[in-house]
Automatic annotation (TrEMBL):
The keyword Transferase does not apply. Residues 7-34 form a coiled coil. This is Uncharacterized protein. The chain crosses the membrane at residues 50-69. Keywords: Coiled coil, Cytoplasm, Golgi apparatus, Membrane, Signal-anchor, Transmembrane, Transmembrane helix. It is a single-pass type II membrane protein. One of its GO terms (cellular component) is Golgi membrane. PANTHER family: BOMBESIN RECEPTOR-ACTIVATED PROTEIN C6ORF89. InterPro entries: BRAP (IPR038757). It comes from Melipona bicolor. It comes from the Eukaryota. It is found in: Cytoplasm; Golgi apparatus membrane.
Amino acid sequence: MANLEIYKEQLQKIRQYARENDITENEIDKALQNSFRILEKKEKKVNLRFIVKIMFVILFIIIVCFISFDKKFLVVMLMRNLQNSIYPGLKLIRKIAVPVIQHYPSLSELYDEWCILENPYFYVNDMDCWPCSVVHFIPDLTGHHISRSFNVGIPYIKRENFSDVRMKDIQELLWQNSEVFKTDAMKVFSNNKTYRNIQDVMGKNMDLNFSKNLYNHITWRINRMTAGRILRKLFPKPIDTPNWWEQSTEKFIFFDEPKSPPYSLPNPECSNIMIRCTTGTRLIKMIASSECSASCKSFTVLLSAGKTLWYNWWYWRPVNLPALNSTTITISYMTSFC
Ligand SMILES: *[C@@H]1O[C@H](CO)[C@@H](O)[C@H](O)[C@H]1NC(C)=O
Ligand SMILES: *[C@@H]1O[C@H](CO)[C@@H](O)[C@H](O)[C@H]1NC(C)=O
Ligand SMILES: *[C@@H]1O[C@H](CO)[C@@H](O)[C@H](O)[C@H]1NC(C)=O
Ligand SMILES: *[C@@H]1O[C@H](CO)[C@@H](O)[C@H](O)[C@H]1NC(C)=O
């Protein structure tokens, strides 16, 4: 802006020069407009360059996703205890992606889907299963602070002091921010075709309106920052999360009718996982990962409202089961930390 005066002056000079040479006002205007058109073209070129850059970023993300889930690369890279080193890599990519997504919200669709193609044959040869082999029960570590030397192979429970989050609360939050959720977090996965998006779940009052066989299950995945920030009001970050762990943008909310059949919990972005039950009761069967099934036992824990269960993905692949005496809908919230 500082150069505006100089610009004006120069423009005056040009006009004066033109007038002195018998060029009409009309012709001067046309000439000036033409010169601006040249600028517009240049800008378009810059945009194109930016798009090419973004393509490279995306290509880079895809390559890294591919590598992180590729077995051979891992076998070479992961020597014993280094399993967690993949995640700092993903963390870096997320850090790169976040400012790009903030400037170009239209790209977040791509960001949403990245790494969805995870390798089903992923298997680490020679994984060190000592961290989970020493687990004999799932401790309740309420009030205990997790130190850096804590063995992450030990799953644990923490009781939290908050009021239950019911369907009504989520409904209210959704109505208040319906525009955001419509564009950012509409899709749900369900075992019942009646529920195709989160509006169906809320509109049909799933909590009051049970199905006949009580089988309905819904997984709602939220992976956009705006929607995630709004949901934080109802699903805050656990108070004593170790402060060297960074929360992933990806969140899951599960709605289960009392008899909703067993399902495996999804594999989230980061390896330190927290699942919190906010209303109702479910059983969580902690099954050791296939690499560690020979040396680590399975456990079953009752997850009731107000409890959170923490575990590490490298050692545990939990299954969510119906609790026998449950009569209400269960809502649980899952997120992960890198
Ligand atoms: C839990 O919250 C209630 C009310 O908010 C408070 O009175 C109580 O002291 C809290 N308990 C703990 C263990 O923090
Ligand atoms: C219960 O579900 C049925 C079938 O989906 C629907 O037609 C009805 O409106 C729902 N009732 C309430 C109270 O939401
Ligand atoms: C799907 O859900 C609706 C609404 O709760 C219910 O009426 C219907 O029986 C369910 N369908 C199946 C196959 O469970
Ligand atoms: C279900 O039954 C078990 C064992 O009898 C009990 O510990 C638990 O509190 C019950 N849960 C509910 C939600 O009633």
